[in-house]
Amino acid sequence: MIDFIPVELFKNIFFNFQLVIVLFLFLQSQNSDLDDKRNLNQMSTVGILLLFFIVTLVGFRPVSYAFGDMGTYSLQFDEFANNVAEPISTDYFFYYFMKFAANYLNKEIFFFLCMLVYTYSLYLASKKLFKEYWAYSFFILVFSLSFWAYGTNGIRNGMATSIFLLAITRQNNLSKILILIISLSIHQSMIIPVIMYVITTYYTNTRNIFRFWLLCIPLSLLLGSILETFFLGIGLGEDVKLKGYLIESEEYQEQMSAVGFRWDFLLYSIIGVFSGMYFIFKKNFNDKFYTHIFNVYLLTNAIWILVIRANFSNRFAYLSWFMLGLIIIYPFLKYKFFDNQHKMIGKILLSYFLITYFLEFVLS
């Protein structure tokens, strides 16, 4: 455990180290060619350095409620260690993993392994998709707005989404299904992106899916509370905590900076919508994987829009946001659309990170 650094400084170190990295990437992109072997080697080296830094710093952080739900997971770990935990009835893979760790490992190693799974899965997915260009994908995924929060606070959800990305990069269908099941059994909320992934495997009309996404905005404005009640009625609210996300209550509102229709969250989501629509329809980018994941992003984001007023709306938004970096960077690493494309990639990485830096670090 890294206990020589004050707890309140971990976030500062994390984001400012990333700031140094992204500034280096930006300068590198303005002065080199994307396909230059020296550039690719340097990017791979920086990518491995960032991977090691994240897993070490965040993985060995002190066990503290300063990191949100980490404190709650710590209490659950102690219950397993002392054989007083309630029977496991949900998120089986995660809690049996916690039970195993409580019996044979220690708490610090457990949280380190959680962070390793969360981050290393993104590395493996990036390597599978982009080969020698993997670092650019890894950079944008760990520069994302929710990366820190779901590595330190929403730990189960973060692990589940990273494993989901790992699953959909597999070409073997059996491997894909097995890894998707693991994702689901780490956090039950993954049922939404998994269902959308299955739907969009067979229904591929992006224009109509986009129209549905667009329709969800006025529907949410007009029928917000009715829709939240509907989702509770079909079983999405069986979990007590999930009910708290949907139902307005003083207990949960105290933990939210804002409730109501989240135009700020919607604007952030539109970054991905614009990127996908631009490349698929404006640039005629015909890539089966990209179209598929973009359709999943649209449908999952649309479900969130329908419950956008919910407490902890960001947790519903995250079910699409974890794909956002991939939606943005994928076309740039698969096909040359522009002159000086490497310079554009550098500007995109810098801009994308600065949004995160401002919202997640400066404002907070």
Features:
364 residues, mainly alpha, 74% helix
Rg calculated over all Cα atoms: 20 Å
The major sheet is characterized as: none
Proportion of residues in extended strands: under 5%
- Tell me the count of domains: 2
Kindly describe this structure:
Helix content is 74%, strand content 0%. With 364 residues, the chain is mainly alpha-helical. Helix 2 runs parallel beside helix 6.
How is the secondary structure organized here?
Layout: H1 10-30, H2 37-59, H3 70-81, H4 92-104, H5 107-130, H6 134-142, H7 147-152, H8 155-168, H9 173-186, H10 191-202, H11 206-236, H12 240-246, H13 250-253, H14 263-282, H15 288-306, H16 313-321, H17 324-334, H18 341-362
Helix pairs in contact: 1-2, 1-18, 2-5, 2-6, 3-4, 5-6, 5-8, 6-17, 8-9, 10-15, 11-15, 14-15, 14-17, 15-16, 15-17
Summarize the entry for a quick read:
With 364 residues, the chain is mainly α. The protein has 18 helices and no strands. It folds into two domains: 1-186 and 340-364, no CATH class; 189-322, no CATH class.
